[in-house]
Design goal:
- The protein is α/β, with parallel strands linked by helices and 383 residues long.
- The protein has 13 helices and 16 strands.
- Strands 1, 2, 3, 6, 12, 13 and 14 form a 7-stranded mixed sheet that branches. A 5-stranded mixed sheet has the order 9-8-10-7-11, with helices on one face.
- Helix 2 packs parallel to helix 3.
- The two termini are 27 Å apart.
């Protein structure tokens, strides 16, 4: 997760694409293959190496006989690239990657009869559009959460109430400029964060969905992002680097996952995360099975294991996310926190979940993700 990756122009998904031709899903489970290769976000597959209290791999390996190997990825584009390369069984894909993987025929339909705990999944996620196509399920929900506005509480004695602190030139509460003290996410999907901010700041633009932008709306969003470029300290994608930037580089505010906020708080660093008045973008992650998975039995066993309430609650507390199994909110996690309350479980309606922008959209014609990718790379490069 610490290596720089090459951005690839993403596959543009259109409604005209078909997922026909994929092999039928597995009908029964035979003998486990002995290993399992997973692409995951950092902090998603823990075996107690970071903290012995957070381990949902060791027992699984012992019970299933499947040795778990994890490849961490920092962005959805990186996950799609790795899945295209092959050699992996599962991926914990966010909504801006999952449909690309489905329509690109890189993942296969999942037989939910082989995942007995699926009925325990939060009803709001069971048939979600980012993993369900034509009534077929292409994965098992794992976790979901917001892209929080993280801020240094010594610089902000009171929580900032708007994303404007990372988009607009201004002095922060300590009287100093925000130039060089804010960060943005290193991923084209971040264009939606700027669009979300403009939805409220400039309602005359008529943006209804931050992932569906016509040419005029898109041009205004890019203008805002070019302005942000003059303020940005770094475009982050590595969680460890971002945490170091808060600690050592004077970063005052940035989009961030609950993972970084939790980890920094554990180090007693003065940081909090908030969902501002504009709301937030967010992610709902699905464990998806590669179309050419070499270890499908172990993969199905993991998908069932992933819905275990003990895993769901521990992961939500550890990562700063929300469980896909709502009942896990009632459980006590290793750290004893009220993780569902702190991670925004009741605020799902304020979160605009990542999805792949398409040329055909609700307002007729929109800018597709391939353009988002090209233009965001240019902006980060100062063009």
């Amino acid at each position: 997760m610490h290596t720089r990756y090459t951005h690839g122009v993403a596959l543009a998904v259109t409604a005209a694409l078909s997922v026909a031709g994929l092999a039928a899903p597995l009908q029964s489970l035979g003998k486990p293959e002995g290993k399992l290769n997973i692409i995951a976000w950092p902090g998603y597959i823990e075996r107690g190496e970071s903290d012995k209290n957070y381990d949902w791999v060791t027992a699984f390996e012992k019970d299933s006989g499947c040795k778990v190997n994890v490849k961490t990825a920092a962005t959805s584009d990186e996950m799609v690239s790795l899945m295209n390369q092959g050699g992996y069984d599962l991926v914990t894909a966010s909504g801006d990657a999952s449909l690309r993987l489905i329509y690109g025929k890189k993942v296969q339909e999942v037989n939910l009869k082989l995942v007995p705990s699926y009925g325990q999944v939060d009803p709001r996620l069971q048939n979600a559009a980012w993993h369900t196509v034509d009534g077929k399920h292409y994965g098992v929900p794992y976790q979901w959460g917001a892209n929080f506005l993280a801020y240094n509480t010594k610089i902000f004695p009171k929580a900032p109430d708007s994303w404007g602190v990372v988009f607009e030139p201004q002095n922060l509460p300590d009287g100093k400029s925000n130039k060089g003290r804010v960060q943005a996410y290193d991923g084209a999907i971040y264009i939606a964060d700027a669009a979300l901010y403009l939805m409220q700041k400039n309602p005359a633009l008529g943006i209804k969905d931050p992932y569906e932008l016509n040419e005029k709306q898109y041009a205004e969003v890019l203008k805002l992002l070019r302005q942000q470029k003059t303020l940005a300290h770094r475009y982050w994608h590595d969680v460890t680097v971002q945490m170091n930037d808060f600690k050592n580089e004077g970063v005052a505010a940035s989009s961030a996952w609950g993972y970084q906020i939790n980890a920094l708080q554990a180090e007693k660093f003065p940081i909090e995360g908030v969902i501002p008045k504009e709301g937030a973008t967010g992610w709902a992650d699905t464990t998806m099975l590669h179309a050419d998975a070499k270890n499908p039995v172990c993969a199905y066993k993991w998908m069932e294991h992933s819905l275990n309430r003990k895993l769901q609650s521990a992961l939500a507390e550890w990562f700063g996310s929300n469980p896909a199994v709502a009942a896990a909110c009632q459980d006590k996690a290793p750290g004893g926190s009220d993780f569902c309350a702190s991670n925004g479980f009741g605020r799902m309606t304020q979160i605009r979940f990542w999805k792949t922008p398409q040329a055909k959209c609700g307002q007729g014609s929109c800018v597709p993700y391939s353009r988002w990718t090209q233009d965001y790379i240019a902006i980060m490069g100062g063009r």
